[in-house]
Amino acid sequence: MIMMTAHRSRKAKPGCVLSGCGAGPGVVAQTLEAPPGTPPPPQVTAVGPQELEVRWSAPRHPNGLITSYLVHRRPIGTEEELLVFIWTNGPLEFIDASHALQPFSQYQYRVQARNSKGSAESQWASARTLEAEPREMASPTVVPTGAYSARLTWTGPRQPNGLVSQYRVVYRKHQLDPTLNTSSVIALTVEEAKSQRG
User: Are residues 119 and 151 in the same domain?
Assistant: First the structure.
């Protein structure tokens, strides 16, 4: 039997005649609530470097009136889940813009449906936040290798915030004579695969 389904039954009139029996007016009976069925996994979409949109659907068998949904989050590969949103009314969606979210990182979400008799949790669904600008790039190391050459090495940024595809190297001539002034700047682009990284 599916809980919380309204059933109709007909009440027979007392007595019958030779041609048949009559029926009384219908009555409606409703079964009691039970814990909800398992809701489907939420749909998680990246909308920014530190923003994820979470949408979900009601359980196929709510088995009662759903009073709230609890949205949990955890970084992928960990068991440290956190309650990030409690739904009580409105559209079944939530924008997670927590400062705890990091660019180009994967997170998992699940939804817990609740009614007066209990709760049920969905499976986890995952998504990756969008890329952002790299941060914390250390200064390069320069070693002269000749009268007209130098070897330049560097390490990648501590926070790449995405897939680094190129490095742009900018340099200019340093005048030892303070009376001379130059503003010429030279730049070149180095592909990630060709870069010298320590």
Answer: no
